[in-house]
Amino acid sequence: MRCGDFKESYLEDERIFQTWFVKFWLGLLLISLLTLPLIASSYVLYVANIIGFAIIAAVGLNLLTGFTGQISLGHAAFVGVGGYATAILITRWGVPFWVALPAAGLISAAVGMFIGVPSLRVKGLYLVIATLAAQFILEYIFVHWESMTRGIRGINVPPPHIGGFVFDTEKSFYYITLALVLLGLGFARNLVRTKWGRAFVAIRDRDLAAEIMGINLFRYKLTAFALSSFYAGIAGGLWVSFMKVVTPEHFPFSLSIQYLAMVIVGGLGSVLGSIFGAVFMTLVPELLNVLTGYAKAVSPSLGPLFIPMKDVIFGALIVSFLIFEPHGLAEIWHRIKNSFTLWPFSY
Question: Is residue 56 within 8 Å of residue 234, measured between CB atoms?
Fold first, then answer.
């Protein structure tokens, strides 16, 4: 009977896929994701695309907040920079989507590095206020720089295409989203295993001790901001290309709070937690909308009560996680996995 999982070398301990059991289930999951468009409805694929955008953005924020300890409340604004950069590059300069998307990520990364410059001088609540200011400044620019962003009217964005094939449906766009989600997750998972990832964690745990060990705080903190913003820019570019329009209403302050909630509910300092958090924060409101619709159909007179109740239930779920499971869904997953591995023993 298999019990426990023992490593005999550092190389075995550092492997991403450590057992054939894990490889088998991940392979099965990948096949399921690839075949999902064959059986799913347009609504399911729409939700799957939205989850994909959220995963990319949440992974970027987790690299900054979960691994490096730099709390940001301006992540939605960086997503907006990527969205507007993609839209402007495509519509004004005729840049193809496949070039505009990485360029938008780089532009967003440059903006993120500019905002991250004060991170060496300030931290904690002071850095939170600095990123909060960035959120409102960028929102102001989105609305009032009309010659470039067209203000509240927004910009219509054409869908991406390869030759004569246009990615203008939920089904076709799903494969672009899936490919970039896998690429982003793979890069982040490998990054946290390198000396850069370990330096991020050292800065998060104790920046003074990290500096004494020879870690250049300014370079690593700026890199964390750049990586986080690059992910946000990619997510924003994908989002506006999928929705075919970009307006300032897409990137409010409440969206920054949602991204922060994703990494907290999913698990700070965990790439897997970013996935769990993005799925949770996207699916739960959708499920509550469905339940609210059924409840209103059964009892129409109580309809006005169900809309605020949905927000109350959603908020209560998040608060419950913060109180009873502060390490997030990733910790629950690790406990389940360890219980399965060690069975029939408890430890």
Answer: yes
